[in-house]
Specification:
7-stranded mixed β-sheet, 11 strands, mainly beta, single chain
């Protein structure tokens, strides 16, 4: 069982930066692939970024819409995954969710993740 708690959301002007954190409870954090998803009002939940299991090298993956602006990273000693968001745009406004799963498989599909955080609001003003 894993519990995930996101933090770091808030209101920022376009062009600004935020860093989201997701703290995980439980054991064997490094054996979990971690993902960030977001959901804007009236839209479906969409993939943002993911980082694979540490045993597979911790590869990172990004949605095209955030590539070059967002960076996902993990600190296994702190049981935490981060999402550094730079050059924020109004279209990045959404609730951002952290997710975790131990099973092998595609990391950009929200339905494959077993554990979810409660979400943190990110609002980018233009």
């Amino acid at each position: 069982q894993v519990q995930l708690v996101e933090s770091g959301g808030g209101l920022v002007q376009a062009g600004g930066s935020l860093r989201l954190s997701c703290a995980a409870s439980g054991r064997s954090f490094s054996s979990y692939a971690m993902g960030w998803f977001r959901q804007a009002p009236g839209k479906e939940r969409e993939f943002v970024a993911a980082i694979s299991w540490s045993w597979s090298g911790g590869s990172t993956y990004y949605a095209d819409s955030v590539k070059g602006r967002f960076t996902i990273s993990r600190d296994n000693a702190k049981n935490t995954v981060y999402l550094q968001m730079n050059s924020l745009k109004s279209e990045d406004t959404a609730v951002y969710y952290c997710a975790a799963d131990r099973r092998f498989g595609p990391l950009d599909v929200w339905g494959r993740y077993e554990y979810w955080g409660q979400g943190t609001q990110v609002t980018v003003s233009s």
